[in-house]
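Troubleshooting log. The previous structure file for this entry was overwritten by mistake, so regenerating from the original sequence record. Sequence copied from the archived sheet and checked twice against the printout by T.R.
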Amino acid sequence: MNHLLLQRLARPLVVALVVFLFAAVAAASLIWHLNHVYLGAERARAVAVADSHADALKRSIDRAMSATYALAILVRQGKGAIRDFDAIANSMLPLYPGASSLQLAPRGVVQSIVPLAGNEQAIGHDLLKDTTRTKAAVLARDSRELTLDGPFKLLQGGLGVIGRLPVFLEDVKGDQIFWGFTSVLIRFPEILGTADFHNLAQAGFAYELWRSHPDTGQKLIIATSSSPALIEPVGYTLDLPNATWTLSVAPIKGWNDPLRLSTEAMLGLLFSLLLGYVAKLLIEPKDYEKGLEALVKE
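Regenerated output below.
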């Protein structure tokens, strides 16, 4: 008799355990799905942020490098010389945010820089004989197109890139003769300010701007917001003259939110326990009553 009663009493516990397990599996599946949706939304937000800032940076670089075309026009008009270059360049610089200096390099030798202060060491630099610059300079001369060289450590200190435009003049026979380069220097991290990169940290993102070395394939860091490596970053590509850069972006605190996951897990566990307890309460009185009836009949 006691054995039958114990069976009746144990049945609600078994039902409660089964309901709890089913509810826990359902809650875990729901939490996984919600986390998947959350991560998708976060990655989409990161892509949008990277896209916006990379596009702004590209526009800033393109705008700064366009100064080389204006200088080239002046060189052609002056038949190889720009009178009052210092005054003209000083008036041009404010029109090209991101440009740190404007340079003239007749025959590939840097002769004029504005502003000169801080750039004195670059005067006399022969771009066509410097082994670290020859390849990019020759590429610009032979392709007759604007090229971007860098990033590299500048002779005058700091990190920067240089846009070089080869200039050709016509001789008396009408042939095109290489005159030299008009160049614009872009310093890092100063150029990042024109693209509001400081807002990335305020939005909760860390970034890394980099490119692959054209010869070795080695990753070259141009600018970064932090020293730790980014966790599963999203990237956006910047197509620049003869160069491809990548802006990688990732949340500073990582993609997952431990507090959110912990809260959802606790709520799922509590929900499962409550369902199991409710199932036990619903079945227990009926089983207990049936057990008593069976005992009375016996």
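The chain has a mean pLDDT of 83. Archived copy saved in two places this time.
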